[in-house]
From TrEMBL:
Signal sequence, start to end: none
Positions with biased composition (Polar residues): 1-22, 31-46, 57-66
Superkingdom of origin organism: Eukaryota
Protein name: Stress-induced protein KIN2-like
Residue ranges of the region described as Disordered: 1-66
Cited InterPro entries: LEA1/2/D7/KIN2
Length: 66
């Protein structure tokens, strides 16, 4: 293999490795974003339930829930 062919081969290998690492990083970023989304949705649901419970407590305390 000539020097030029060797350099070209090594450049191709480096390019492939870079693309693979970029793909892996994108997958990790996507997974992190999905996890954050699910966590925020769960937190939002918990807040909604607590607000509803507080509202019911106020209605019960003031006699508006009869």
């Amino acid at each position: 293999m000539s020097s030029n062919q060797n350099i070209s081969f090594q450049a191709g290998q480096a390019k492939g490795q870079t693309q693979e690492k970029a793909s892996t990083m994108m997958d990790k970023a996507s997974n992190a974003a999905q996890s954050a989304k699910e966590s925020l949705q769960e937190t939002g649901q918990q807040i909604k339930e607590k607000a509803h419970g507080a509202s019911e407590s106020v209605k019960n305390a003031t006699g508006l829930n009869k």
